[in-house]
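ARCHIVE CARD
CATEGORY: sequence design from structure
SOURCE FIELD: tokenized fold
FIELD CONTENT:
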């Protein structure tokens, strides 16, 4: 479907549900900087030409933000809002390698510094629940984001999709997954140490039921969000309560 038609469909739904009047064009799925700058300009401009679109959100990867692409994104900055999303996902290179992420922690740091150096905002992603990772890694992720001064974060849980390599590992019983209560606890551990001025874009995620293998509890998104709020109240805590820059 052409970008303009995709946008009209989405905007119609958002107007009817939320009364929205202005919009950000969100290039979300896959790697939306993986093309020559001239082709990217065509795609981005096709979204920005709509009179109700006031900016761009570009989902990409830390190994796919070369200088010419950042030049292009920077060219929009003075007249439109621009946000670049990229995933760290794990603070351990060993985990990134085992999950075939294709980048290192240092490459993520470099990509964020170069992107923010252009005056562009960054929303960073982290996944909780990788095998062998727990509270220590959640806390370290918050510290990484604090040091890099990212403007926003999205928190996801590790989940298994149909027809993925993780499904084969899960079927063998070799992939332990977080229980709901443990995930909630890790999210709060993360939030307590995150800069208080960082915008939270997401605290959990879900997949289409037709594609999700496990854990099935992630389909109850509102229930998970309620439990996170309850855990924060139980601890008497808030975002940034234990924030330290060092």
């Amino acid at each position: 479907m052409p970008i303009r038609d995709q946008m009209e469909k989405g905007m119609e739904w958002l107007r009817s549900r939320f009364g929205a009047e202005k919009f950000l064009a969100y290039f979300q799925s896959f790697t939306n900087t993986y093309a020559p700058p001239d082709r990217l300009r065509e795609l981005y401009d096709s979204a920005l030409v709509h009179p109700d679109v006031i900016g761009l959100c570009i989902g990409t990867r830390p190994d796919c933000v070369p200088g010419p692409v950042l030049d292009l994104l920077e060219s929009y900055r003075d007249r439109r809002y621009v946000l670049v999303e990229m995933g760290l996902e794990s603070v351990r290179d060993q985990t990134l390698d085992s999950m075939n992420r294709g980048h290192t922690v240092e490459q993520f740091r470099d990509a964020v510094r170069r992107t923010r150096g252009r005056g562009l905002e960054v929303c960073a992603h982290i996944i909780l629940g990788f095998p062998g990772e727990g509270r220590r890694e959640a806390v370290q992720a918050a510290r990484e984001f604090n040091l890099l001064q990212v403007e926003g974060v999205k928190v996801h849980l590790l989940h298994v999709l149909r027809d993925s390599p993780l499904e084969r590992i899960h079927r063998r019983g070799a992939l332990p997954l977080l229980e709901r209560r443990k995930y909630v606890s890790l999210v709060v551990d993360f939030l307590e140490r995150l800069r208080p001025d960082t915008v939270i874009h997401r605290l959990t995620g879900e997949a289409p039921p037709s594609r999700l293998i496990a854990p099935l509890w992630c389909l109850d998104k509102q229930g998970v969000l309620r439990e996170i709020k309850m855990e924060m109240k139980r601890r008497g805590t808030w975002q940034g309560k234990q924030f330290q820059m060092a």
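CARD ANNOTATION: Residues 70 and 114 are 8 Å apart (CA to CA). Strands lie at 23-27, 53-60, 81-89, 121-128, 152-157, 160-161, 199-202, 212-214.
SHELF: design records, drawer C
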